[in-house]
Design goal:
heterodimer, A: about 120 residues, mainly alpha, 4 helices, elongated, disordered C terminus, B: about 500 residues, 23 helices, about 75% helix, globular
Chain lengths: ~120, ~500
């Protein structure tokens, strides 16, 4: 085990503050994304349970419930996921920049150059 | 006859393409890592195709289309829950799991909890999920063979198990699975398009029945049919909630899905792979409703796992229908093969490296054993359809591996005792409820019909409470592990003075 890992293990390394802060930021992002998804899902589940007519209402020849559940929700999840990835990567880039300013560590850059991913 | 010829031709082409795609560039698998994922550092979208192939199983597809034909809109909740499962995987699990360097869930538990006993519990759960998943695949595959050429389902199941064993042992690679995903998507897409066009233009025979009135309603009756699995026949709001919860939280615990992210070089590309999976699944899940609606019109009352293959024959009697049936059987076979091989190699690899000490010889024995157990259980355990089995597997994962992953990644205070207790409580609750629901439905009532709604909160509560009560059993070095999981690779490498890519916990 390296000296730094040992210090981290003992809770004495100042780096721990950065790690804890990053975990807190990422946890906040994750909970926000899940809250959005959960609220959307709960709204759908609840609305169709409370107002059965909403699901059967016909919109352009297709029942509204079918339209929402097959074509409506999946693009919404995709948008939410893309926003989450952007936020999580930004948090990591910020941390890398801060640590590099402080210690000179981090090498030539973050794990990857920022850019539009193929995803 | 034409259908059989078409599907034999299709399967031959599929196997040929898979074999070409699967030829490794230089050496064949030398280490376990090569065997699992063949090539590291593949592009996110290509790895996503492999994830999609492992996930969009024959069982899920055939069963889902068939059940939509029978019950209408309530079954559309299933894909919604599944896709949410990938959003949950993305936000809570995938990047930290990749950065931990562990590539099976068992390795993750041993590393994070520093305990071989915890690893053994995870291995047991993974084994259970793997066998249930295999049962579902073999059940669906047997139904396809039966519909195609009249082979009894058990004989077809045996034949398919032999094919899976041969293909899996020959080497399951990212390329093969990715190719199979696109073959499956193309075949099922072309089939759906052809049938929809035939129906819209009036080329098809007149429908056997009108769509029933309940088809449009997003919820259905809440009766329990004694099916194995959560709410397979229960379409009431609590039943739907149980299905959505199980698939949203269970996806992260599917061993053959999580192992795939090891083919990503880092946490960033693992995240992007999940986003690509979300897009691909969104496309893929447009198809079952098409087959479902046409099935409701043309094949009402057909057995769920068989409906899709009967559909072209009912709509376009004669050669076109036969050719389409053969084509769909090819797509179903691609789905069956990709998922089954992914499951037997991942689960077999975990078991053989823990019990038989690794090595390709041990893996062969384990793969054969797994398939034999799945075939035997399929004969012994009553089950409604393949989708019910898949949901049962997801419920076990949601109630045992999900709390382990989520708390292990985000909470420093997770203790070894707490993790083991929580997994046993959650998994045990699912098993007991499912058993009681099958033997004495009155005794357990609603809880037996919606096991996920009970078992998941129980697992989380037990894991949290026991961990809080046993702070001395929190594994040492948890701060370093948190840093390893959450810091970007380059930074972790510099700060912890160790190459994250070289961290290979499976070699222990």
């Amino acid at each position: 085990m390296t000296a730094r890992a040992a210090a981290l293990r003992a809770g004495e390394d100042p780096l721990w503050g950065s790690v804890a802060a990053l975990v807190a930021v990422q946890r906040r992002h994750a909970l926000r994304t899940l809250a959005v998804v959960g609220a959307g899902l709960g709204l759908l589940l609840g609305a169709f349970a409370l107002v059965p007519a909403a699901g059967a209402a016909v919109l352009g020849g297709v029942p509204f419930g079918w339209l929402v559940l097959t074509a409506g929700v999946q693009p919404a999840w995709l948008v939410v996921a893309l926003r989450h990835v952007r936020a999580a990567e930004q948090a990591e880039r910020d941390l890398v920049r801060a640590v590099r300013r402080r210690t000179g560590a981090g090498g030539s850059g973050p794990g990857r150059p920022p850019g539009r991913g193929s995803a | 006859m034409t259908a059989v010829v078409t599907s034999v031709l299709g399967v031959a082409v599929l196997l040929l393409v898979s074999a070409i795609a699967g030829v490794p560039p230089a050496r064949r698998y030398v280490t376990k890592s090569d065997f699992y994922t063949a090539a590291r550092a593949v592009a996110p979208w290509w790895n996503a195709s492999a994830v999609g192939a492992g996930f969009t199983s024959a069982a899920a597809f055939l069963g889902l289309a068939g059940l939509i034909a029978g019950h209408g809109a309530p079954l559309l909740w299933y894909p919604v829950g599944v896709v949410v499962g990938y959003v949950v995987l993305l936000t809570l699990v995938v990047a930290p799991l990749r950065r931990s360097g562990a590539y099976t869930l068992c390795d993750f538990a041993r590393w994070r909890l520093g305990s071989a006993a915890a690893g053994r519990v995870v291995t047991g759960v993974v084994l259970l999920i793997g066998v249930v998943y295999l049962m579902a695949q073999i059940h669906a595959g047997g139904a396809v063979l039966n519909a195609l050429c009249g082979v009894p389902p058990w004989a077809g199941g045996c034949a398919l198990a032999v094919v899976v064993a041969v293909v899996a042992i020959a080497g399951s690679t990212t390329n093969v699975q990715a190719v199979q995903f696109w073959v499956m998507l193309a075949v099922l897409g072309v089939g759906a398009l052809a049938l929809a066009v035939a129906w819209l233009t009036g080329l098809a025979a007149p429908p056997a029945a009108d769509l029933p009135a309940h088809f449009a309603s997003p919820y259905g009756p809440g009766e329990a049919r004694g099916a194995l699995g959560p709410a397979a026949g229960d379409l009431s709001p609590p039943g739907v909630l149980a299905v959505v919860l199980a698939s949203a939280l269970g996806t992260m615990g599917l061993p053959h899905v999580t192992v795939r992210f090891y083919a990503n070089p880092d946490g960033w590309s693992a995240r992007r792979t999940v986003v690509a999976v979300l897009g691909m699944l969104g496309l893929f899940y447009l198809l079952p409703p098409v087959y479902g609606v046409l099935g409701g019109l043309y094949a009402p009352g057909a057995p769920a796992d068989r409906m899709m293959l009967l559909l072209p024959l009912r709509m376009l009697p004669g050669v076109p229908g036969e050719v389409l049936t053969g084509l769909l059987a090819t797509g179903a076979f691609a789905a069956f093969l990709a998922t089954s091989c992914g499951v037997v190699v991942t689960v077999g690899g975990t078991i053989s490296s823990r019990v038989l000490g690794g090595g390709v010889g041990g893996l062969r024995v384990t793969v054969a054993g797994l398939l034999a157990v799945a075939l035997a259980l399929l004969r012994l355990v009553p089950h409604a359809n393949s989708l019910a089995l898949v949901l049962f597997g997801l419920t076990i994962a949601a109630a045992s591996l999900c709390p382990l992953l989520v708390l292990g990644i985000w909470w420093r205070g997770l203790s070894t005792t707490g993790a083991v207790a929580g997994m046993l409580a959650g998994g045990g609750a699912v098993a007991v409820l499912a058993g009681l629901a099958a033997c004495a439905p009155e005794a357990v009532g609603a809880a037996g019909r919606y096991p996920a709604l009970v078992a998941v909160p129980v697992a989380f509560a037990v894991m949290l409470a026991v961990s809080a009560a046993t702070p001395r059993r929190v594994p040492p070095g948890e701060a370093e592990m948190m840093a390893r999981m959450h810091l970007p690779e380059r930074l972790a490498h510099h700060l912890l003075d160790r190459s994250s890519r070289g961290t290979d916990h499976s070699a222990d």
